[in-house]
Amino acid sequence: MVIIIKEKARSMVKPSEKTPRRRLWLSVLDQMNNPSHNPVIYFFRSSPSNNNNNFFDANILKHSLSKVLVPFYPIAGRLRPVQVHGGGRGPHPRTEIDCNEQGVLFVTAETTSVIDDFGDFAPTPQLRRLTPTVDYSLGISSYPLLLIQVTYFKCGGVSIGI
């Protein structure tokens, strides 16, 4: 079965208030892996108790996310490669988070499929389409640290892909 997922909107959600402008170094452990996003998908089935107009309303989710980004402001920043001098080793590369309020990617999508169409939820290219994508070829400073996709299913269920 072919599952069609149509992206409806893509926007950057920024902190709702000004946040500290600073740079935070990543730990050595954080820098050991290639910078990429590790996808996680959460599914929520519709039920009579949550069948109201606000069930996973995208505007409410974006507003709440903008509030959460105030205390968790580094998530709204970007990675930045730097050359560090000193320590007796000469210049060496290091990565830091530039806390610049550029925001988190928030995507809404819809599908005519139902949650059960994904079967046992084994990793497949179709399941991967429930998470947002970015162009990694533009470099680590170009893409958000957090990507969120909310997909609405025909059955009334919702998935959140991070």
Key features?
162 residues; mainly beta; Chloramphenicol Acetyltransferase; 3-stranded antiparallel beta sheet; 2 helices; transferase; acyltransferase activity, transferring groups other than amino-acyl groups; acyltransferase
Give a structural overview.
Strands 1-6-7-8-3 form a 5-stranded mixed beta sheet, covered by helices on one side. The chain has a 3-stranded antiparallel beta sheet with strand order 2-5-4, with no helix packed on it. It has 162 residues and is mainly beta. It has 2 helices and 8 strands; from the N terminus they run βββαβββαββ. The chain has one domain: Chloramphenicol Acetyltransferase. The two termini are 24 Å apart. The model has no long low-confidence stretch (mean pLDDT 91). The longest helix has 11 residues, at 58-68.
